[in-house]
Each structure stands twice: as structure tokens, then as C-alpha cells.
Amino acid sequence: MVTADPRDAMTDESASSIDEPGPDAGDSGAPEPPGRADPVPGGPRWYRARVRRLGPIYGLALPAVTGIAALAALVFGEGRTAAVLALLSGVVAAPGLLVVGAPIADQGTYPLAILGSVPFWVFLGWVAARRASRHPITAWREFWMEMGLLYIAVATGAVAGVLIAAIRLGERLL
Q1: How far is it, in rounded angstroms, from Cα 48 to Cα 129?
Q2: How far apart are CA 5 and CA 1, in angstroms?
Q3: Residue 71's closest CA among 114, 108, 104, 105?
Q4: What is the pLDDT along the chain (174 residues), one digit of tens a residue?
Q5: Which helix (H) or strand (E) holds 162?
Q6: How far apart are CA 101 and CA 89, in angstroms?
Q7: Which of 170, 123, 114 lies closest to 151 in space, CA to CA?
Q8: Conformation bin of residue 82: beta by default, left when phi > 0, alpha when psi is -120 to 50
């Protein structure tokens, strides 16, 4: 005895009605799922998004303040102490200065080295923002803690680089 396949019993009209959605299929009027709604201003998701969006730009604040301090020490200071302070704070604010060989190298390369340090600090701001926003509740406090740790690490490396160069050059650098 041969049984008929149920798919053979379907007509072309019934097959096409199965494949095509009805007129109300896409417009049910149901609210969007909770994960897709816009974040509430001032809420946790809003703060996380804000920290992630603005963190790379705010990452330039610490090196900018350090760079202004270096410039002020250079302009207003006198003597060896002001020069050492300007050098150390300058290479912390713009680590690219070490790459071009500051303070021994040609001063014409300094603006390019300072400009080259900006993407570095923006990247570190992005890293700090990502690290700070990995927690469900994120505020600027977490960002500044992460950025502060990265800033201290860069400062330690830059100062160590200058000190090693000073030792290698016989302390003529400082």
C-alpha cells in the first residue's frame, strides 16, 4: 500500500500563502524589546555610552596640563631645576619627544613629535574608557582611575628613559 506524501497534497495557492507573511505580520504594535530602547538620560547605560564616547577626548586632559606646566617652567623658570622640570614634564606630556631624541635632537622635530603624541594619548583615553565601562555601573570616577594608572605608567617610562639617557651621557643631560 502506497501512502501519499502530505506535501503533494498542497496546492500552489496554499504553498504561496505559507511563504508570504500576512498583512499584519511586521506591524504588531508591540513595544520594542527592553535592550533596544534609547538609554534614559543620566541612567547607567547613558553614562557608559558617554564615557565610551568622550573618554578618548578627555584622555588628552592630563597630558595637556602636564605640557602647560612644562611650558610654564621653560618660560618662567630659571636655572637647572626649571630646565629639568620642563624636560621631565615635557617628555611625560609628549612621549614622542623621546622618539625624536629630545633634548639632544634638532628642535625642528619637536612640533612633529608633540603632534605625534596626540594619537597616543587619544588611544590611551580609549583604552581607559573601555576598561572603565566594562562594569555595569560606570561614571567618570572609574574613567579617571583607569586613565590615572595609564598616565602613571607612561610617566614612569618617560622619566626612566630620560634618567637612563642621563646616566649613559654622563649626567650632562640633567
Answers
A1: 9
A2: 13
A3: 114
A4: 555 555 555 555 544 445 455 555 555 555 655 556 777 787 888 888 899 999 999 999 999 999 999 999 999 999 989 989 999 999 999 999 988 887 777 888 889 999 999 999 999 999 999 999 998 888 899 999 999 999 999 999 999 988 888 888 876 666
A5: helix 140-168
A6: 15
A7: 123
A8: alpha
Q: What is the pTM of this model?
A: 0.72
Backbone dihedral angles phi then psi of residue 116, each to the nearest 5 degrees: -70, -20
Q: What are the residue boundaries of the structural domains of the chain, listed by start?
A: 41-168
Q: How many Cβ atoms from other residues are within 10 Å of residue 97's Cβ?
A: 25
Dist. CA 164–CA 170, nearest whole Å: 10
CA atoms within 13 A on the CB side of 174: 16
Cα 39 to the chain's mean position, in Å?
21
Within 13 A of 107's CA, how many CA atoms are on the CB side? 0
Other Cβ atoms within 10 Å of 133 Cβ, number: 22
Q: What is the largest CA-CA distance in the chain?
A: 110
Instruction: Write the CA distances from 25 to 16, 20, 21, 39, 83, integer angstroms.
Output: 15, 10, 6, 28, 74
